[in-house]
Amino acid sequence: MKWLSLIALALLPALGLAQAPATPAATAAKGPPPLEDFTRNADYAQMAISPSGRYLAATIPFDETTVLYVIDRTTNQRTATIRAAGENTVDEFWWVNDTRIVASVAERLGGVDRPKPTGELYAINADGSGSMQLFGSRAAGGATGTRTKRGGAQRYASAQVIDVLPGDERHILIATFDWRNSQQAPPSAELLDVYTGKTTRVAVGPKAGASFVADHEGKVRVAVAPNDRLNPVMYLRAGKGDEWGVFNDPDQSGAIITPLLFARDNRHLYATIERADKADALYRIDLGDGKRELLYEGGADPGRLLLTPDRLDAYGVMTYDGKTAVHVFDTASQFGRLALSLQQAFPGQVAVFGSFAEDGKFGLVHVFSDRNPGDFYLFDTTKKNAEYLASARKWIEPEQMATMQPVRFKARDGLEINGYLTLPRGGDGKNLPLIVNPHGGPHGPRDYWEFNPEAQLLASRGYAVLQVNFRGSGGYGNDFQRAGYRQWGLRMQDDLTDATRWAVQQGYADPRRLCIYGASYGGYAALEGVVREPDLYRCAIGYVGVYDLELMYRDGDIPRGLFGKRYLEMVLGRDSTDLRARSPAANVDKIKAALMIAVGGRDERVPPSQAKALRAALDKAGKPYEWLLKDAEGHGFYRAENRQELYTRLLAFLTANLAAPAAH
């Protein structure tokens, strides 16, 4: 019997679900897969193997939360569960030893934004015993952060895991800060006992907002903290009790260094380094003499390091230059060679080790692509075989999904812009109705070559989907991101316009059937797109979007957060006349396109006041629109029935506006 069946027997009854048939119904049925296939939650989000290889831990998403389950591989039974209270969700988790697991908790913001960590940590034994809250309890008044008692005094603090310590099965390193004065006081690095919750301070950061990197002896030797211009300064010290010294100040050096991991010798440091007008590159830096060894450079910033089983070194890195891939820089490493072999075993997909048993005998492999939402395999490094465990979305048939292809073009000012084009299966891929789908953020996030349920849904209904990593997006170097600062509605919007016209010029898109749709910042870009280009798009859809830039300084959690107002000033500016000129709500008189607006009534990131300001302006101008408000939802819809309604109405809106070319 396959591991999938064995795990399903343990998990599915507890979840109240039935096992899916071996062949999805959509395979035999005519027409596109049902809408529910794209809107329902994945069965698995993350999975990791314990140090001995005996246990598997997996996070399972639900409409309201995400739950952590532990499965004993010797009995194929679920043995432990961590479920966050209320509207919180299990965020990340770490195996501290083979029988103890720690998980962090995050507050659910909505369906389109990553949950915000609350600073709480929980622990449980693999057999289900020893469950406890390690750090904190919810602060009074619902504020993000935790409230603990330390030495009889109440302490308002949040915790973030720095590292699991090799060879120490009782402690982990955490960073803590008092969320009431986090913009003034530097955080502390503390040793946390995962059985008692007791902490011991081992370091204090050099400045407020600092993050830490520890070496493999548990010494906190590297820190990064923002300066007054919010540029990250890297600090270095010899060891416990020593003073912090500046290793790199980007205002002086002209480059940003982001530390990632100490190498096995504790002398070298893996880090990405920003380069002028280029994507970041991965280096190994000698902290003694400062010499740098280039390990990877490409057209996009490298991603996470791929670690050896003992987590003391790295052999490769994830890359995102066009298609997602694995780059092995240590080809002499056993696990580097295994990683290369995996790629050959799964052609056209990405196959990557996610975690290992400590002795390296077993590795958990994640396989995914633009058409495959993700499969998990248990790889025996001795026998060199992979045994199938489970799928993230087992009902998806990859052969029925559309192909996402990387694209590249030059904007009107000559800047190179990257993106992805998803074309419906069948046909010649020409003269199609096109949905331009700008991502949210906008600064930091980017689109990737991966399975995208929304793009696949639209493609399954006959639409081409164009995702654009416009200037200001993350992932292409700091200069590219900063090129979008104070360019909301200006050059950032021009990039989307140029992308749309490029798709028309290449013959992919019918110029009479163009729509722009996005969430969060993407919602702003959708409405601003039909303000600035009233004759280009036939329709626009704004989903939990920003429509009044001045309101961003007053409403929502950004101005309340760490350095939030300073960030807004940096990326938007403060000139009221300018902000109004770039706000869709202040310029609705220019709109000719059909509009649909979707709103979360409990959205903290982009409060409903944004959509209400747009609605008031549209009503005053006599402009028609479709309106969808879900009072109980946040920054994007979490609940399956609400997502179902959103996309049902969205598809009907698109059909009504793009089904046939507009009359001349």
Could you please describe the fold and organization of this structure?
The protein is of the alpha+beta class. It has a domain at 402-548 and 580-658: Alpha/Beta hydrolase fold, catalytic domain (Rossmann fold, 3-Layer(aba) Sandwich), CATH 3.40.50. It is 19% helix and 36% strand. Strands 29-30-32-31-33-34-35-36 form an eight-stranded mixed beta sheet, sandwiched between helices. Strands 9-10-11-12-13 form a five-stranded antiparallel beta sheet, with no helix packed on it. Strand 20 and strand 21 form a beta hairpin. The chain is globular, with a radius of gyration of 25 Å.
In short:
By secondary structure, the chain is α+β, with helices and mostly antiparallel strands. It is 19% helix and 36% strand.
**SS-derived structural category:** alpha+beta
Number of strands: 36
What fold name stands as the CATH topology of one domain? Answer: Rossmann fold
Number of continuous helical runs? 13
> Main beta sheet, described?
8 strands, mixed
Low-pLDDT windows of residues: 1-29, 138-155
What's the CATH C level of one domain?
Alpha Beta
CATH architecture of one domain: 3-Layer(aba) Sandwich
Throw out a few tags for this protein.
single chain, 664 residues, alpha+beta, Rossmann fold, 8-stranded mixed beta sheet, 5-stranded antiparallel beta sheet, disordered N terminus
